[in-house]
Fold:
Amino acid sequence: MISNKAFGVLSGLSFAFMLILLVFASNANAANATTEGRINRYVVAVSANNGGAGRPMLRYAESDARSFAKVLKEMGGVLPQNVILVKEPSVDALQKELSKLDAKILQDKSVSGRNEVLVYYSGHADEKGLRLGEETYAWKDLRDRIDALSADVKIAVIDACGSGAITRVKGGKAVPAFMVDQSSDMKGYAFITSSTQDESSQESDKLKGSFFTHSLVSGLRGAGDLSSDGRVTLSEAYQFAFNETLQKTETTLGGAQHPSRDMNLAGTGDVVMTDLRATSAGLDLDESVYGRLYIRDNAGELVAELNKKQGHAMSLGLPAGNYTVNLQQNLDYMGATVVLSNGKREKLSIGSFKSVVAEQTVLRGEIGGNRNCTSGDTIACSLDSLDHNGKFRTTFNFVNTDSDPRKGLQLGLFVARTKDYMLGTQVSLFANIAQKEMHGLQATTIVNVAKDHFEGAQLSSVANYAGSFDGAQVSSVVNIAKDKSSGAQIGIVNVAVDSLNGLQVSAGVNYAKTTDLQVTAGVNVAQAAKMQVVAGVNYATNSKLQIAAGVNATHVNEHLQVGVVNYATNEKGRQWGIINICAHCEKSPVGIINVVGNGVWSATPYLNEMGALGGSLHLGTAYFYTNIEWAAFFKKGHIFKEFEKFYEHGVGVGTQFGKYGSHWELEYTFFNVYDKFGVDEGDCKFGYHHRGRVGYVYQVVPGFGLSVGGTLNLTSEGYINKLLLKPLGDYHDDVSYKSHKGRWWPGFYAGLTFGRF
Structure:
């Protein structure tokens, strides 16, 4: 028998063994549950700054795509190997990237769990679809391709003009967001767009990104966590981005921008976009902090911007680093700095902020000693600080000089001068001078000078100068821009030393290294010009379109020259004028005199059925040439001895049936027939001669050939009141209509041809 003591020991061992088995089973079930609930997330972030001809080049599409991908990698559970960045793709290239993603998803499906895909696009679009360079990816095709991805949940975030068109393909319906935690079984699609179908999506130099993406990323970092549960749902992020985007764009030139969404999701579970607990570092703002917050990183870049309500705590997820937090409460401005470390969360209360000195707030905002732009005196940081923190001021003096940044109106009886950044207006009698970047207006009777960059308008009676400008220079005499600029120059003389993305209008001279459009009464000069219009002379090293009442000259012309005289070393387009000259023409010029180096230039002395000794000059190309011709007539019975008193000259057009060397010709020429030879044509009376001919030129050797052919001739009296021309054989036929007499006959000619034909 087993003793009671032994039995107790065995019972204890059995219980321990059973407990161990239960623990292992529980761990195994937990592991299986974790595997089964795993979410595999993929991000395809596409950027396209170039929207093709006629659309401005965007600046921040690529950085927007990186920002979106970065926040989801840091806080959205997306593994680095599942982030795909696509820059400036063609339609075919984007389709290939989506196909590669599809293959990767199918490969990863061997691991249990749910697959979710985010497709982000920042760039140009219109009512037809995404604009990828000169190509268009139709909305329907894009939507069908995203719908076809082998994932349980598909999402498209599209930050582009008219992007709301994609939500109208099937109709929009607001439902819960798509990204969910591991307990969810949600499936379906969601489309988020930065604007409605007929709105423009806008980007900002101050934000260095688009209004929508900047607001969306701020919301995902925690600003959109309205429930304060440490997680941001798509509905929360979307609502935050909607409100912020609308608020920021209500007063812009592009107008109010309304994000939109279309979702079709089914399932249960908690919907989550980002988890603040997943970040390596974080910033907590307690209930005492309220107002407009601007958070900048160590490089001075604005990483988050939001309105915070009093009595409501907020957490933000940010990478480790040094940050400046600026707080605006009505007209009060405060600042704080914070260092975020991995594995720690820092907390800011209202006591952490220090007030900016009043004088500094008025004149400098963040510019100066307390300004924390560690990359130096950056234009973006300084002007953004001045715009948000500067107070509008108006000052007046005989010579009004200001050494500090200013926002407002500067009036000088003689001179107005600012040595630092300025937002506003300078008005003076003689001169306005801005030594650093200025945005606004300069107006004076003599000279405006902006030594750095200028945005706005310079108005003067004599001269405007800018290091570079975006806007307009208008003067009665001269406008000068030193560096790359955009806008308009209007004056007697306009000079853009570098490129001008815009327009030059003058009464005298326009010069630009490169420009879009030059219009003047005198001379246009450019190294590269899209269009030149002049009453005098256009000259460009490279041009697309030149129009002149005088002379056009260029080394390379892409499309068209229209003028009295056109010259091009290499003409890829068409020349229309009286005299056209080109060393190499790809298309036939149209004019009276066409001199084409690689075309037709030949002379033919000939004899014909009227006993005429003539000469014709062919100028142009084999496809289209002009004929300039002159002929004198031997007296009957006096061939090569004595000429009649009458003669003719004319101009015509013809073609060689597109062949050089031995070829057939078809030609029409109109002649004036004069009744006196050797007398001023102004004292002569003249009739008319119409001639059509078909001829053949046989090339004996290059540069020399034999010409022969037949003609059909019709002559009329004109102002002579008699018919002077007829064949030597008198085989003509006289006709008349009312009081007008005419004569027709068939003819022939033979001659020698010299030149290139």
In short: The longest strand covers residues 485-520. Residues 430 and 446 are 5 Å apart (CA to CA). The helical segments are 4-36, 61-75, 91-108, 139-147, 211-223, 234-249, 358-363, 379-389. The radius of gyration is 40 Å.
